[in-house]
Design a protein that fits this description.
The complex is a heterodimer of chains A (about 110) and B (about 110).
Chain A (H helix, E strand, L loop, with lengths): L3 E4 L2 E4 L5 E7 L5 E8 L3 E10 L2 E4 L6 E7 L2 E6 L8 E8 L8 E2 L3 E5 L1
Parallel strand pairs in A: 2-11
Antiparallel strand pairs in A: 1-3, 3-8, 4-5, 4-9, 5-6, 7-8, 9-10, 9-11
Chain B lengths: L3 E4 L2 E5 L4 E7 L4 E9 L6 E6 L5 E4 L2 E6 L4 E6 L8 E9 L6 E2 L3 E6 L1
Parallel strand pairs in B: 2-11
Antiparallel strand pairs in B: 1-3, 3-8, 4-5, 4-9, 6-7, 7-8, 9-10, 9-11
The chains are: A mainly beta (about 110), B mainly beta (about 110).
Chain lengths: ~110, ~110
C-alpha cells in the first residue's frame, strides 16, 4: 500500500557488504516492525519499535540492526550480508487502537551472492 | 521451532468449491488469531481475525473456526473464486500486544 513504502524494492548485493533497507509510513502509526519472509517459514519478526525511543529484538535479530529515525521512518541494516539473508523483507506498522492489525509495505526482495 | 503450524502448504480448489486451511498452536497465552492474505508482489493484508471467546467468525465468504481445547483454528473460504488465489497466513498474538507469530503459509490456487 502507498501508506507504507519500502526502498529499494529489489536489491542484489555481495557477501560482506553493508546494506540498508528503508521504510516510511504516512499512517501516523507509532508501532513499526521488520519481518523476513522465507518459503515455508512464513514471516518472522526481526525487530520492532513501539515508539521512536523504543527498539526491541524479535525472533531472528542476529545479523541485523535497526534505526528509528522518526515516527514515520524505520530502517533495517545488514552489517555484513551473507547468502543466508537472501529473503523477502517486509516493513509493517500498527496503531495501538486497532488491536494488532498490521499494515504491510510492498516488500524488498534481497539477494546476497 | 514454529509455534504456529499451518497446513497444507499448497491447495488447489475448483471455482465454487470450499477452501480449508488449518493452523495449530502451542502457546495457550495466545489471545488473538488473525488471517492475512498476500497477493504476488504485495505485502500481506489482514483478512479476518478471531479472539478465543468465540468459536466462529464469519465475514462474507470467509469463516474462521476456532477450537480452544484442541488449540486449532481454520479458515474456510466458501464459493472459492479465482480472485481468491493468493498465499494465506495464519498468525497468533498474546497479551493484546502487537507481536504476531505467523504460520508457514498456504498457497491457494482456485481453478476456473
Amino acid at each position: 500500500d502507498a501508506d507504507v513504502t519500502q526502498t529499494p524494492r529489489n536489491r542484489i548485493t555481495k557477501t560482506g557488504k553493508r546494506i540498508m533497507l528503508e521504510c516510511s509510513q504516512t499512517k501516523g502509526h507509532d508501532r513499526m516492525y521488520w519481518y523476513r519472509q522465507d518459503p515455508g517459514l512464513g514471516l518472522r519478526l526481526i525487530y520492532y519499535s513501539f515508539d521512536v525511543k523504543d527498539i526491541n529484538k524479535g525472533e531472528i535479530s542476529d545479523g541485523y540492526s535497526v534505526s528509528r529515525q522518526a515516527q514515520a521512518k524505520f530502517s533495517l541494516s545488514l552489517e555484513s550480508a551473507i547468502p543466508n539473508q537472501t529473503a523477502l523483507y517486509f516493513c509493517a506498522t500498527s496503531d495501538f487502537t486497532t488491536y494488532n492489525e498490521q499494515f504491510f509495505g510492498p516488500g524488498t526482495r534481497l539477494t546476497v551472492l | 521451532q514454529q509455534q504456529v503450524k499451518q497446513s497444507p502448504q499448497s491447495l488447489i480448489v475448483q471455482k465454487g468449491g470450499i477452501s480449508i486451511i488449518n493452523c495449530a498452536y502451542e502457546n495457550t497465552a495466545f489471545d488473538y488469531f488473525p488471517w492475512y492474505q498476500q497477493f504476488p508482489g504485495k505485502g500481506p493484508a489482514l483478512l479476518i481475525a478471531i479472539r478465543p471467546d468465540v468459536s466462529e467468525k464469519k465475514e462474507g465468504r470467509f469463516t474462521i473456526s476456532f477450537n480452544k481445547s484442541a488449540k486449532q483454528f481454520s479458515l474456510h473460504i466458501m464459493d472459492s473464486q479465482p480472485g481468491d488465489s493468493a498465499t494465506y497466513f495464519c498468525a497468533a498474538s498474546k497479551d493484546a500486544g502487537n507481536m504476531l507469530t505467523f504460520g508457514g503459509g498456504t498457497r491457494l490456487m482456485v481453478k476456473p
